[in-house]
Each structure stands twice: as structure tokens, then as C-alpha cells.
Amino acid sequence: MEEVFTGCSHPGVRFPGGEASRGTVKPNGNFNASADAEALHKAMKGLGTDEDAILQLLTARSNAQRQEIKTTYKTLFGKDLVSDLKGELGGKFETLIVALMTPPLAYDVTSLRNAIKGAGTDEKVLVEILASRTPAQVKDIIAAYRQEYDDNLEEDVSGDTSGHFKRLLVILLQVNRVPSSLLVSSLLIESDAQVLFKAGEQKFGTDEQTFVTILGNRSAEHLRKVFDAYMKLSGYEMEESIKRETSGPLRDLLLAVVKCARSVPAYFAETLYYAMKGAGTDDNTLIRVMVSRSEVDLLDIRADFRRLFACSLHSMIKGDTGGDYRKALLLLCGGDDA
Fold first, then answer.
1. pLDDT score recorded for residue 20
2. May I ask the CATH architecture of the domain 115-174?
3. Architecture of the domain delimited by 264-333
4. Where are the domains of the chain?
């Protein structure tokens, strides 16, 4: 298992408007796994726990470095670092630290497994991960899921969902989005826009299958051009039509696919905003996004958050969380765009 889930991010992955690594967390230049393992051991030894030392250290290391610390910790002390952390910490802070200690691929895989196998289905997790990850990442997730659980992710998703929502998830798991070079022809762009218009705004009732098929099988580059053509044709943004024409988990998934085609960082900025807005905080989503994007595009997410909403991501986290949990999240955020 540990051999499979290595590496701190997906090299060479590029997002619209972003660079290969636009994360807030970078590898530590003076990294020493033994010194870090010793420091963590000391922070947990004896009476009381030095939570501040733990969070300051772990948020300032890349995931690959955290895996090295974990290996060295076991060599030096004969104990599992994650088990020791779980034994010393509690609540949301523990959940966040354990997430930081999990390799990214393993984190996606366990998040999906828990979403499917827990009590009821956590559609939000299925939507967020399968709409936002690149085809290469989805392929890795499918292989790692099979290796870890000896189960087929597509079969598990199918068994736990239904209708057009299930169909679109299954299409996204095929990772057969036609490469943009073959697709971005003005004829097909126009044709897709017209077919979507006829399936929704122009029809009494909605042909959801058409939305599912086109949005699930086209590249992001192609879809962005389709959205422009659709706007000219119908006078509506694609998101407006989806909100009007569909409902429930299918609507959430279609919107996520459209938003990720436009901009993955903007999609996550919005996801973070709504996780904290209003009464109560969706801490699971807050942790999942902050951890999984910290080495990928959190700088872009922060910029989009500031552009889209009347506050910075830093200030919203600060006002919505507390204690060591807040300190660790703010360190991951890495700066205030006030």
C-alpha cells in the first residue's frame, strides 16, 4: 500500500490560468527527516502535547517530506507516527493533521471509499473529486482503489447512486474525454451548443441524457467554447440553464463539471466559500479542499476567492474556525489577500 501511494502531487498537471505548481505549501529547503521525527516525538512525549510544534512543522513540509518523516519516525522509535498523532490529538484538528499525513492519491481514494461505504452516500465528495481531477488522476484513483480495496470503483459508485447522476459519474470514470486537438472544431462547437439548447431551454421538460453525454465526454477547452456559443444562441450562461432545468445531485454534478471546465481554482474558491458561509461550517469540505489543493493551486484559489467574494480566504477561515485547527488552516492558506 505505501509503495503505491507515493509522490506529493501529480507532476506536470496544469490548470486553466495556473502553473504546474501553484500551491502554498512547498518542499522545505533545509529538510532533515530525522530532526523532524525527533521534534514530533518530543512534542508528544510526556505529559501534555505541544500542538503548536506539530502544526508549525507539518504545514511547512511537502507531502513527500511528511512521508519521509513517517518512515524515519518508525525507524527511530518503532511506532507509527499517524497512530501516535491520533492518540495525542482530537476533533477537527486531528482530522486535519491526519489528512496532511496522507499521500494525495491515498487521500482521494479513502475519501471516495468513505463517501460510498459510509452511512448513506456523500454525493458532495463524489461530485467534488470526480469533476475536478484530471483524466490522469482519475485513472490513478481507479487503479489505487482496486489495489487498496480489491474492488471496482465504477461498480461501487454505480451500486450506490442512480439515474442520470449515476450515468454522469460513470462517464467521468471512463476518462474518455476526447482530446481537444481532435475536438475543437467550430462545427462541433456549434452543434454541441445547439443540441444542448434543444435539450433544455427549447424543450418542455429536459433531456438530461444529452447534458450528461456532452458535458461528460468533452475536454475542458472544447466545453469553454461550447459555453460561449450556447450563451450567444440562448442568451443564458450554461450554469443558469442547468440550475433551471435540473435538480438534486445531478444538478450539483453538472454545475461542478461546467465550473471545472471554466476554472478549477474558481470552482474550489466557491466550494470553500459555501463551506463556511452562513450558520455552521462544513469542516469536512474545508479540510478536504485545503489539504488536497495546498500543493496544487491554492495560490490561484486564494486569488479567485478574493475576486469573487468580498473578503479574503484567510479572513473567512479566521472568522469561522478556532484554536489549533484555525492556526493550521491559516498556515496552509499561507497569506492574507486583504
1. 56
2. Orthogonal Bundle (1.10)
3. Orthogonal Bundle (1.10)
4. 33-89, 115-174, 186-262, 264-333
Neighbours of 219 (CB within 10 A): 17
Which H helix or E strand runs over 148? Answer: helix 135-149
327, 302 in Cβ contact below 8 A?
no
Radius of gyration over every alpha carbon of the chain, rounded to an integer in angstroms: 21
User: What H or E segment, with its residue span, contains residue 286?
Assistant: helix 283-292
Residue 252, phi-psi category: left (phi > 0), alpha (psi -120 to 50), beta (remainder) = alpha
Looking up cell 471545472 gives 260
Cα of 62 vs its chain's centroid, Å: 17
- How far is it, in rounded angstroms, from Cα 261 to Cα 222? 9
**Which of 227, 211, 230 shows the shortest CA–CA distance to 165?**
211
Query: Residues with Cβ < 8 Å from 182, sequence gap 6 or more?
Result: none
Q: What is the mean pLDDT of each run of 10 residues along the chain (338 residues)?
A: 34 39 95 98 93 98 98 98 97 98 98 92 97 95 98 97 97 81 76 93 80 94 95 96 94 98 98 94 98 98 97 97 98 92
- Residues forming a β-bridge with 178: 218
CATH for 33-89 is 1.10.220.10
CA 219/CA 216 separation, integer angstroms: 9
CATH number of 186-262: 1.10.220.10
pLDDT tens, 39-56? 999 999 988 899 999 999
Task: Count CA within 13 A, CB hemisphere, residue 240.
Answer: 9
User: 16 phi and psi, to 5 degrees?
Assistant: -55, 125
Shared fold status for 186-262 and 264-333? yes
What integer pLDDT is reported at residue 200 of this predicted model?
A: 85
